[in-house]
Hints:
The protein is of the alpha+beta class and 172 residues long. It contains four helices and six strands; from the N terminus they run E-E-H-H-E-E-E-H-E-H. Helix 1 crosses helix 2.
Amino acid sequence: MANAPGAFAIDRAGPEDAPAITDLWFRHLTQTSGEVDPTFAPALAPRTLAARLKRALAAGTLLGWIARAEGQTRQQLAGYLTARIQVQDPLFGDTFAYEPVLYIVDVDVEARFRRRGVSGLLTAHAEAHARHHRIRTLELAVVVRDDRAVQAWRKQGFETRVAVMRRPIAKR
């Protein structure tokens, strides 16, 4: 466990953390439901998502870090970050030369701990992992309608590289 400024401890996430990560993910989704993009609706039940997360964390195909505030148990997260090492461009496959990146899959911070630097601490741990493995780039996707998230990531030095656009097909 690494002690972090602001009384937060950051640990590597393991399979045993999957239920707490799932719980925070669903609570965050409930808080922002319809606020950002109504097309983001869960397709999995919490139990199914937790089982998938557990398997991926155990296999190492998904990396993760958890943040806890002072006094919280391992089941009470202040936040988490999940990531994977990506070796091929998700949009273009092997069409272009692509250097591996640490792709940040998801970050959630419990509402009462937001604006206290938790996502920055989690990102710093992910970046240290990337640096240790000679990965020179962090990458993530953000919903452009979520101004709070866009601004938070820009503050951490991220910039837009590709915009994925969507248009519904009109019924005839």
